[in-house]
Amino acid sequence: MIWILLGPPGAGKGTQAKFLAVHLGVPHVSTGDLLRSAVREGTELGKKAKAYMVAGDLVPDELILDLVRETLETGDAPGGCILDGYPRNRVQAESLDEMLAEVGQELGRVIRLVVPDDVLIRRIAGRAADEGRADDAEETVRNRLQVYRTQTEPLVAYYESRGSLTEVNGVGSIDEVRRRIQRVAEGKAGPR
Ligand code: AMP
Q1: Is 88 a catalytic residue?
Q2: Fewer Cβ within 10 Å of end Cβ, the chain: N or C?
Q3: For ligand 1, atom 10, which residue shows the shortest CA distance?
C-alpha cells in the first residue's frame, strides 16, 4: 500500500514521512532526496534537474516519472512505501494511478499536512539557517510556495473526490504532529 504525504514546502512532510515509514514498516521515498543525491553524484538526471531545483521549479515530469517507476518496479518497495514530494501535479497523480495498477499496489491514505503561510515561512527560514539547503533562499521559497499553490494544491480535490484524503493539522511540535498522523495510520481518525 502506498501512502502519500501532501503539503507545501515547510509543512514537515520529510520529517513526518520518516516517522510514518518506521511506524508502518515500509520505506520512505522522497523524490526531493533522490534528486538531491543525483545532483551531488553528478548523474545525468542530476545535471538535468539542478537548474529547476535551484529556481524552485518542478523538474520535468518525464525525469520524475522514471525515478518513481524504478522505485516501484525494482522491488525496493514490495510492501508499499510512503511517497514524500510526489505527486506534485495532475500528470504525476494520473501516472501514479497507472503505475499502481501495473505493479498491483493500492493507494492508502493521502495525508494533507495543513500549515498556514506565516508558520511555513518561519520554518523554512529556520531550515535555511540550520541546513543551508540551496532552495531555501527567500526568493526560491516564494516560487516554491507559488508552484505548490498552482500545481500541487489542486491534488487535494483530486484525492478528496476519491475519498483518499485525510487532513492533519501540521501546526505544533514535531511530536504532536507525529501522534496525529499515527492516529490516522492506526485508523482512529477517519477521512476529514
Ligand atoms: P522537496 O525536497 O520535495 O521539496 O523537493 C525539492 C525540489 O526537487 C523541488 O523544489 C523540485 O524542484 C524537485 N522535485 C522534488 N519532487 C518533485 C516532483 N515530484 N516533481 C517535480 N519536481 C520535484
Answers
A1: yes
A2: C
A3: 56
C-alpha cell, 113: 499536512
Among 18, 50, 133, 178, the active-site one is: 133
Q: What one-character-per-residue DSSP string does 88-125 give?
A: -SHHHHHHHHHHHHHHT--EEEEEEEE--HHHHHHHHH
Q: Ligand 1 pocket test: which of 29, 35, 95, 150 has the largest number of ligand atoms within 8 Å of its C-beta?
A: 35
144 is catalytic: yes
Please indicate whether residue 56, judged by its CB atom, sits closer than 6 Å to ligand 1. yes
What's the pTM? 0.92
Residues 6+ apart with CB under 8 A from 154: 89, 90
Asked about 47 being catalytic, the answer comes back as no
Cell numbers representing residue 125 in the block: 527560514
Provide the Cα torsion 141, 146, 147, 153; round to 10°.
Answer: 120
Q: Cα dihedral sign for 29, 6, 120, 181? A: negative
